[in-house]
Specification:
553 residues, alpha/beta, 10-stranded mixed β-sheet, 6-stranded mixed β-sheet, 28% helix, 27% strand
C-alpha cells in the first residue's frame, strides 16, 4: 500500500475500489485461507486483480443461477412502490444468503449477518438494489445493483423514497447533494441538472466521489474542470474550502479569483496577484509566499528572491530549508548546520531525517546529544526526535509540534507542555497526563492509561493501542481507536468530532463501529455505564496506581 501511495502522490484509491476490496476481504478467510494468510504481502494492485476476479465470478453466478440458495421470504416489507416494487428488510442470515446469490454480491456468506440490509424487490420477489444501513449512526454505508455495480437512473426514484423514509444523517455509496432548501438529489446526472436549473447548494451537503466540483460564493455548483475554469474566467468568485479539484493545480487569490493550471498561476503571480499560503494547491512544484502575499515558483526563483531581501511567510519546497528571524532563506542541511553555529536565529525550519529542536528564541539544536543537553527551562518552538535511541525522558515546554515517533521515550516529565500536535507513534510511553492543543497521534504505542490532567485540542489517534482499555477525556476533534483494545467510554468523555471504534471489544459488544451525533455519543456512554460493573473501578484503580508511579520518576 505504501508503494501505491508513493506512486499516486498519496491520493486515496477510488472509493468504489475501496468498497469492492472490503467486500472481497469479508469472506476471504473462509473461501481462500491460504491467500488470507499472506494478505499483508499482497500489493494494492494485486488486491484489485483478486477482487475484480471475485466480483466477476459473483456476477456470472447471479446470471447463471435459476434457483438460489437461502430464503427469499424472510423479509419485512418497508415501503411499497409502483409497478409491484417494494423495499424489504432482510431479517435472517438465510434471507441475506439469497440476496447475495441473486445479486452477485457478498451480503450472504455470513459477512453481513449482523448488518441491516434493505432490498428493492420486484413483484416476483427478485432483488434489484441492495442497501447496507447502519441504524446506530444513521448512515447508508453502500447501495449496489447486480454484481456490485452502481445504482442506475432506473432505480433513483425508489432509492430516494427509501432515503426519505430512513432520513439518514449521512449517505455513502452514491453521489448525493442537498440543496439550500433541503431537497435531496441523487446521482451525478440529477445533481448536474439541478445545478443547470439554478439550484443552490451548501458545500458541506455535497458528496460527489469521482468528479471535480466547486461552489461559488452564492451557492452555485459547477461540475467538471472545464465548467469551473469557464466560471472563473467569467469572474465567478470561489472560496478555497469550497473547491474540490482532484488532479489539477489551482490557487485562489485574496479577492476570491480561481486560477487553474500552473502556467496561469504563474502568470497571475507575475502580474502582481496576491495569494495566501493556505489557498494554494500546487502538487509537483516548489513554491513560497512572501509576507505581502507574492507567490514565487521554482527553487531558483525562491532562492533569488531571498537573496534580494524578500521575506517569506511560508515555503513549500522539497529540500531542507530554514528561515531566519530576519526572513533570510537557507537551503540544504549542510548550509543550515553551518549557519546555526554562527548564532543565527531562526523562525522556522524543515529538515528531513534529522533530529532537531528549535527554541522559542530561534536557537537551533542539531542531533540527539545537543537536544538531550538543552538547558532546563528553555522553551522550544518545534521538536523532532523521531527514532532517537538515547532520549528516554522529555521535560521541556514545546509551543509547536512535537515529533517522537519510534523513539525510545518512556516518560514525559511534569514540566513538559505541548502547544501543538504530538506524535508518539510506536513509543513505549505507558502514561500520558498532559494537555495537547493539537492532534495526538499515539497509534501502536504502549499507552496503558491517560491521566486526569490530559485534554486534547485536536483529534486523538489510539489505533492498535492494545494496553489502553478506557477513554474518559475531552477531545475537540475525532477519536480514532480502530483495532485497539478499547472497552469503555467514560462519562467525562466529550467529543467534538466523530468516534471510530471498529474492531474493538467496545464495538463488538455494542454492535457499532462509528458514532457522529451528540445523541449517538451519549447513547454509547450510557451503554458503557450500564455494563461497567466492578470493571470500571478496577480500571480506575490500575490507572491511578500507574500514574502515581510515573509521576514520582
Amino acid at each position: 500500500m505504501e508503494t501505491y501511495a508513493r506512486q499516486n502522490e498519496y491520493k486515496l484509491p477510488d472509493e468504489t475500489d475501496i468498497d469492492n476490496t472490503r467486500d472481497w476481504l469479508h469472506g476471504l478467510q473462509v473461501e481462500d485461507p491460504k491467500l488470507a494468510g499472506r494478505i499483508d504481502r499482497i500489493s494494492w494492485k494485486d488486491a484489485q486483480t483478486h477482487q475484480k476476479k471475485w466480483h466477476d465470478g459473483l456476477a456470472k453466478k447471479a446470471e447463471k443461477l435459476s434457483e438460489f440458495r437461502g430464503n427469499p421470504d424472510d423479509v419485512t416489507p418497508i415501503l411499497n412502490y409502483e409497478g409491484g416494487f417494494q423495499w424489504v428488510k432482510l431479517e435472517t442470515p438465510e434471507a441475506k444468503d439469497f440476496e447475495g446469490n441473486a445479486m452477485g454480491n457478498c451480503v450472504g456468506r455470513g459477512g453481513y449477518d449482523d448488518k441491516t440490509i434493505f432490498s428493492l424487490r420486484d413483484k416476483d420477489n427478485f432483488p434489484h438494489v441492495t442497501v447496507e444501513y447502519d441504524e446506530y449512526t444513521k448512515t447508508i454505508q453502500q447501495m449496489k445493483c447486480k454484481g456490485n455495480s452502481a445504482v442506475t437512473d432506473a432505480y433513483m426514484m425508489p432509492v430516494e423514497r427509501l432515503i426519505n423514509k430512513l432520513k439518514p444523517e449521512r449517505i455513502t455509496g452514491i453521489d448525493n447533494a442537498i440543496s439550500k432548501d433541503g431537497r435531496l438529489y441523487l446521482g451525478l446526472d440529477n445533481i448536474k441538472q439541478a445545478s443547470e436549473e439554478g439550484v443552490k447548494f451548501a458545500f458541506d451537503k455535497v458528496n460527489i466521489r469521482n468528479a471535480d466540483y466547486a461552489i461559488s460564493a452564492d451557492g452555485r455548483l459547477y461540475l467538471a474542470l472545464d465548467n469551473i475554469k469557464q466560471a472563473s474566467e467569467e469572474g465567478i468568485k470561489f472560496a478555497f474550502d469550497k473547491v474540490n479539484i482532484r488532479n489539477a493545480d489551482y490557487a485562489i487569490s485574496a479577492d476570491g479569483r480561481l486560477y487553474l493550471a500552473l502556467d496561469n498561476i504563474k502568470q497571475a503571480s507575475e502580474e502582481g496577484i496576491k495569494f495566501a499560503f493556505d489557498k494554494v494547491n500546487i502538487r509537483n512544484a516548489d513554491y513560497a509566499i512572501s509576507a505581502d502575499g507574492r507567490l514565487y515558483l521554482a527553487l531558483d526563483n525562491i532562492k533569488q528572491a531571498s537573496e534580494e531581501g524578500i521575506e517569506f511567510d511560508r515555503i513549500n519546497i522539497r529540500e531542507d530549508y530554514a528561515i531566519s528571524t530576519d526572513g533570510s532563506l537557507y537551503l540544504g542541511y549542510d548550509v543550515i548546520k553551518k549557519v546555526a553555529k554562527t548564532n543565527i536565529k531562526f523562525k522556522s525550519i524543515s529538515i528531513m531525517n534529522v533530529n532537531y529542536a528549535l527554541s522559542n528564541d530561534g536557537t537551533l539544536y542539531f542531533g540527539e546529544d545537543a537536544i538531550k543537553n538543552i538547558p532546563e527551562g528553555v522553551v522550544l518552538k518545534d521538536v523532532d526526535i523521531s527514532n532517537c535511541k538515547c532520549i528516554t525522558v522529555w521535560n521541556h515546554k514545546v509551543l509547536g509540534s512535537f515529533k517522537a515517533s519510534y523513539s525510545c521515550l518512556t516518560n514525559i516529565g511534569s514540566n513538559a507542555e505541548f502547544g501543538g500536535s504530538v506524535d508518539i507513534i510506536n513509543t513505549h510511553i505507558p502514561v500520558w497526563n498532559h494537555k495537547v492543543r493539537g492532534d495526538f497521534k499515539a497509534w501502536g504505542s504502549s499507552l496503558i492509561t491517560i491521566g486526569p490532567d490530559a485534554s486534547f485540542g485536536g483529534s486523538v489517534h489510539i489505533e492498535r493501542c492494545y494496553n489502553l482499555t478506557e477513554f474518559n477525556h475531552k477531545v475537540e476533534g475525532d477519536l480514532i481507536a480502530l483495532c485497539s483494545n478499547l472497552t469503555t467510554i467514560g462519562q467525562n468523555a466529550d467529543f467534538g468530532g466523530s468516534v471510530y471504534i471498529e474492531d474493538t471489544p467496545l464495538s463488538k459488544k455494542n454492535g457499532i463501529s462509528e458514532v457522529r451525533t451528540p445523541e449517538e455519543k451519549q447513547t454509547l456512554k450510557d451503554a458503557c455505564k450500564s455494563g461497567d460493573g466492578d470493571t470500571s473501578s478496577f480500571i480506575s484503580w490500575i490507572s491511578d496506581f500507574i500514574l502515581s508511579a510515573f509521576s514520582r520518576r
